[in-house]
């Protein structure tokens, strides 16, 4: 019996969005439908969970719909152990969001992402929020699972780095969203703000331990084309997060996401025990007073119940994370832009996909990566960033053989529109 | 930007002199060998030992104990009497929902670690006559070393070599630790089937159901992989002008190592021009030798005795750590974690040269090992 099945129709949502666009072009801008920009400063962080709404939207007159989006394009020159494919120009992604107020206390927000041209079209978010009390909001639809901070707060223009953190894309599934519902709430005090979120959604599937990455790989869950329409095993995924931001100290988030990933039963016939995948994450961000250095980091631990008789290729434990440090160097008008800032940035990141030792030798199972990414970014406005990154990465295979080294020069722009 | 490792520091890469079409086929085989990962969704298992060629032969080099193979059930040339219990190979891993095989009680077995795959096209192209010339079954020259080929029965799909030599309908095997495999096609089709549970039209019987099933790998992929194996370059020796290395090489000959680990062989005419009529330096005679009781695991294949092993090529030895996670795992089962320990396990036909090694001065031992590391 399937207990939790959430249905959502992909195509319809895309049509609705496109219709809105076409409509706007055809109708044009009469005075009563004047486009205004909702006031938003995207660099002013509130809680990570607010990121979905804390974006620049365009509003059309008195119509209760606001629209926005961002795009990212870059060029990259990458060399792996002396071998390069030359220059690549990439339009990594374009994301559109649409929000509407159905009522003062009912909001709908959707976000559609086009990755690598139209190769991948994902509904990242399409949920209805109903406020019952500031501590009790009901959210239902396609929800972004609040694990760590990146998943919630991943808009390209907010970051100084062209690549998303490896721990967010290859340990955790970045922009991991699922159909489900749950509650969230927030309370404000003069010196801090505290929040919680808890959702039940469709969840993992067994591609976690059966994928061509040849490692335990939570992002492989996203390969199941049916995951928005049915639950793989009828077991909900629980995601919960609590965050606190204390004035002048920073924001700390603690989150958990876990559920059964295998098909333990088919047509009432028991096949296997329930096997779980559980993820814990801590995220922290702050801005140092006076010098305005921002520090943003996330660390993740996963535990996956891999059958003993499978292969050690697939790890039972994983961990990884990143730390970004960004130092504004100057802020002044530049080239006719009023609020330009130039930043120096550095990221250090690490992921170990297989934490443990080989049964046969008692020696470390490697399967890890370490990377360091210095960069310079020029924020032409709060919503547009031009970035230059240099990335150097050391990757080890399972056995810990000499590392495969990759370096990349990357230049790109990312902007809300 | 990270530099390319020097040609002589890595095992992968094609032999020189391939045509453009051959290079393209090499690349296809490379992808199938190193990058194709089998999953339960695309055919892995249900029973298997590892899920890609590359997970046992990382970087085309020697294997690591975590994917060691177990074979069981045969003690002499009368064949394997445990076929109905899953012999010869134990599939000790299973996809979720299945149980892997376990070793039947009191059965003879051995463990074997994957050898390196470099330069195999050269070994493949040596003529049967040349191999037989090196063999001395009755030890007529009285040096204590005989050396015999493994005479094996061929699978139906094997293409018999030009000028093949037969004995009672059996042919000379030259691959595998006991030399029980005829050619790279048999090795590849068996590896797909036995090591990964991937059936092909060559080896269509599934190891779990024991039934003939649909192919899970195409014939053309199998042929690409075979081509890749044939055209992987031979390891390139390093530091050949170092005085210690030169002295070590002299010792290698003078204490009799080279009698089995033949330094020079030549290929016959091959359909791949780059491999045709070439002299090369593998340090093997492709023959079986009785290595004494210490290396006798009471299991065998083909006509080999349980104490007999095919001389492993020593080319690439110094690079083997780079595919074994930084440590040496030498000999058929990886029991030797240093070159010296591998030498000290030599017995039987190798006993004399081991004793001569033990009588060398410390300096000479170091020179010999430096030479072996330079290969």
Keywords:
heterodimer, A: 417 residues, mainly beta, Porin, 16-stranded antiparallel barrel, two-stranded antiparallel ribbon, 2 helices, 20 strands, disordered N terminus, B: 375 residues, alpha+beta, three-stranded antiparallel beta sheet, 26% helix, globular
Written description of the protein model:
The complex is a heterodimer of chains A (417) and B (375). By secondary structure, chain A is mainly beta. Chain A is built from 2 helices and 20 strands. The N and C termini of chain A lie far apart (45 Å). Mean pLDDT of chain A is 88; it is low at 1-33 and 41-45. Chain B is α+β, with helices and mostly antiparallel strands and 375 residues long. Chain B contains 10 helices and 12 strands. Chain B has helices at 20-35, 53-56, 120-124, 128-134, 184-196, 219-231, 243-254, 339-344, 351-358, 362-373, and strands spanning 47-48, 69-72, 89-90, 93-94, 109-112, 150-152, 166-167, 170-173, 265-266, 279-280, 288-290, 308-310. In chain B, the strands form 5 sheets. In chain B, strands 3-2-5 form a 3-stranded antiparallel β-sheet, with no helix packed on it. Chain B has a 3-stranded antiparallel β-sheet with strand order 6-8-7, with no helix packed on it. In chain B, 51% of the residues are buried. The A-B interface holds A 79-84, 206-207, 209-214, 262, 271-272, 275, 307, 309-313, 358-361, 363, 366, 392, 397-402, 405-407 and B 1-5, 36-37, 39-41, 44, 48, 50-52, 55, 58-59, 64-66, 68, 93-100, 322-327.
């Amino acid at each position: 019996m399937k207990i939790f099945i959430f249905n959502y129709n992909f195509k319809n949502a895309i049509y609705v969005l496109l219709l809105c666009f076409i409509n706007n072009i055809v109708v044009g801008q009469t005075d009563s439908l004047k486009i205004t920009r909702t006031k938003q400063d995207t660099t002013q962080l509130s809680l990570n969970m607010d990121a979905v709404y804390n974006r620049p939207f365009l509003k059309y007159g008195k119509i209760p719909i606001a629209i926005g989006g961002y795009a990212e394009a870059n060029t990259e020159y990458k060399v792996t152990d002396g071998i390069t494919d030359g220059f690549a120009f990439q339009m990594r992604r374009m994301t559109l969001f649409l929000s509407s107020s159905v009522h003062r206390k009912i909001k709908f927000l959707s976000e559609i992402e086009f990755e690598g041209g139209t190769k991948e079209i994902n509904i990242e978010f399409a949920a209805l929020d109903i406020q019952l009390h500031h501590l009790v909001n009901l959210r239902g639809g396609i929800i972004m699972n609040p694990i760590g901070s990146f998943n919630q707060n991943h808009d390209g223009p907010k970051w100084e780095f062209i690549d998303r953190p490896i721990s967010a894309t290859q340990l955790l599934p970045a922009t991991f969203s699922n159909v489900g519902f749950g509650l969230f709430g927030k309370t404000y005090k003069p010196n801090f703000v505290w929040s919680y979120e808890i959702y039940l959604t469709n969840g993992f599937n067994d591609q976690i331990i059966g994928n061509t990455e040849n490692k335990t790989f939570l992002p492989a869950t996203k390969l199941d084309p049916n995951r928005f329409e049915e639950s793989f095993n009828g077991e909900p995924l629980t995601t919960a997060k609590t965050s606190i931001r204390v004035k002048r100290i920073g924001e700390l988030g603690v989150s958990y996401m876990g559920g059964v990933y295998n098909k333990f039963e088919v047509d009432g016939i028991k096949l296997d025990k329930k096997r779980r995948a559980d993820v814990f994450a801590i995220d922290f961000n702050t801005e140092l007073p006076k010098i305005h250095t921002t520090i943003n980091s996330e660390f993740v631990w996963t535990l996956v119940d891999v059958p003993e008789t499978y292969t050690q290729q697939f790890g039972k434990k994983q961990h990884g994370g990143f730390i970004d440090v960004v130092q504004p160097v100057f802020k002044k008008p530049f080239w006719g832009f009023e609020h330009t800032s130039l930043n120096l940035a550095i990221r250090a990141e690490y992921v170990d996909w297989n934490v443990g030792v080989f049964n046969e030798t008692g020696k470390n199972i490697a399967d890890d990566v370490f990377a360091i990414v210095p960069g310079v970014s020029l924020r032409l406005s709060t919503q547009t960033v031009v970035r230059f990154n240099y990335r150097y990465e050391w990757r080890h295979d399972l056995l810990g053989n000499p590392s495969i080294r990759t370096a990349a020069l990357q230049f790109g722009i990312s902007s809300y529109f | 930007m990270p530099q390319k490792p020097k040609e002589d520091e890595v095992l992968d890469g094609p032999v020189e002199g391939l045509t453009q079409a051959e290079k393209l086929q090499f690349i296809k085989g490379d992808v199938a060998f190193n990058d194709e990962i089998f999953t339960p969704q695309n055919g892995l298992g249900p029973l298997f030992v590892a899920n890609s060629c590359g997970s046992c032969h990382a970087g085309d080099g020697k294997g690591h104990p975590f994917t060691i193979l177990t074979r069981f059930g045969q003690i002499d040339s009368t064949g394997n009497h445990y076929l109905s219990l899953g012999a010869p190979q134990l599939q000790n891993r299973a996809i979720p929902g299945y149980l892997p095989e376990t070793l039947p009680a009191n059965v003879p077995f051995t463990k074997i670690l994957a050898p390196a795959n470099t330069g195999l096209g050269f070994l493949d192209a040596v003529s049967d006559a040349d191999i037989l010339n090196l063999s001395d079954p009755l030890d007529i020259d009285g040096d204590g070393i005989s050396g015999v080929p493994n005479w094996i029965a061929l699978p139906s799909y094997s293409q018999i070599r030009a000028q093949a030599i037969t004995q009672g309908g059996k042919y000379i095997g030259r691959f595998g630790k006991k030399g029980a495999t005829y050619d790279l096609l048999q090795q590849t089709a068996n590896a797909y089937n036995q090591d990964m549970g991937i059936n092909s039209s060559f080896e269509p019987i599934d190891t779990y159901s024991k039934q003939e099933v649909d192919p899970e790998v195409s014939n053309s992929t199998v042929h690409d992989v075979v081509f890749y194996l044939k055209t992987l370059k031979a390891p390139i020796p390093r530091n050949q002008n170092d005085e210690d290395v030169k002295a070590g090489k002299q010792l290698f000959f003078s204490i009799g190592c080279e009698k089995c680990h033949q330094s020079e062989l030549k290929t016959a005419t091959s359909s791949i021009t780059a491999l045709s009529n070439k002299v090369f330096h593998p340090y093997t005679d492709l023959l079986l030798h009785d290595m004494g009781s210490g290396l006798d695991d009471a299991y065998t294949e083909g006509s080999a005795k349980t104490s007999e092993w095919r001389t492993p090529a020593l080319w690439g030895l110094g690079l083997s750590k780079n595919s074994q996670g930084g440590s040496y795992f030498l000999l058929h089962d990886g029991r030797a974690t240093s070159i010296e320990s591998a030498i000290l396990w030599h017995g039987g036909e190798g006993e004399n040269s081991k004793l001569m090694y033990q009588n060398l001065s410390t300096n000479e031992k170091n020179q010999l090992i430096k030479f072996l590391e330079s290969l």
